[in-house]
Amino acid sequence: MTPRLDAPAVARRDIRVLLVDDQELVRRGFASLLANEPGIKVVGEVGDGAQAIAETWRTRPDVVLMDIRMPRMDGLAATRAICGDERLSATKVLVLTTFALDEYVYEALRVGASGFLLKDTPPRLLLEAIAAAADGDVLISPAMAKRLVADFVRRPTGDSGLLDLLSEREREVLAEVARGKTNSEIGESLHMSPLTAKTHVSHILGKLNARDRVQLVIIGYETGLVSLGE
User: Fold this and answer.
1) 3-state secondary structure (DSSP) of residue 138
2) pLDDT tens-digit profile of 155-190?
3) CA distances (Å), 14 to each of 63, 133, 210, 217, in order?
4) What are phi and psi of 207, to 5 degrees?
5) Residue 228: is it exposed, middle or buried by C-beta count within 10 angstroms (0-12/13-18/19+)?
6) Count of CB atoms situated within 10 Å of the CB of 222
7) Beta-strand pair 63-66/92-97
8) CB count in 10 Å sphere of residue 110
9) Which is it for the CA torsion 125, 112, 195, 180, positive or negative?
C-alpha cells in the first residue's frame, strides 16, 4: 500500500485533480499517490492535450497536472487553451515534466501555468504545489526557481528601495520565497505556521504590487536580498 503523506495544507477541502500524461503507468502512479490523500479527488485521466481540454470542460477540475511532451497536442498548447479561456478561470494548471528546459519554464508560466515541477519532485512538494495552485497561487521547485531568474540577475540590479516597503519579518519571508520554499517550509524555517507564512506572502504581494510568487522570486534576486550561490 502506498504510504499516506503528511499534507495538512490540502486536508481541509476537496481538491479535484485531472491527470494528463501520455504514459499510462505515470498516470496510474500519480493516481495511486493522490488516492491516499484526504481532501484530494482524482476526477479523470487522459493521455494528450486535446483530451485534456475536453476533460477539463467535462469535469471542471480545480487543478490539472499537465505533462508537456504528448502526441496530438502538447501540454503547453493545452495549458494555453485552458488558462486563456475565462470560462475555465476556476481551473489551474500545474505543469509536471521530466524536461528541465528553460524555454518550457518560461512558456508554461507565460501562458498561465500555476507552477512548474519536475517529475522527480518529492511527493510532499507535489502536494504543496497542488494546494497552492488550487488556492490561486504559483509554486515552482527551488532548482527551477534559480534557473528561472538566472538571466535576470545578469542584468543591472533592481531597485533595492522596494525592500524598504517591507517589515523585517516580511523581508525574511521574501528571502525564503525567493529560495523557492513552500509556505510549510517557510513556516518551519522561520518558526511560524504555514497559514501565517501564507498571510505574509499575501501582504508582500500587495506591498510590492507583484502578480505572483514568480515575481517575488525575481524581486528577491534582483534586489540582492538573495543570491544564486545560496
Assistant:
1) coil
2) 545 566 888 999 999 999 999 998 878 888 899 999
3) 11, 13, 28, 29
4) -65, -35
5) exposed
6) 19
7) parallel
8) 12
9) positive
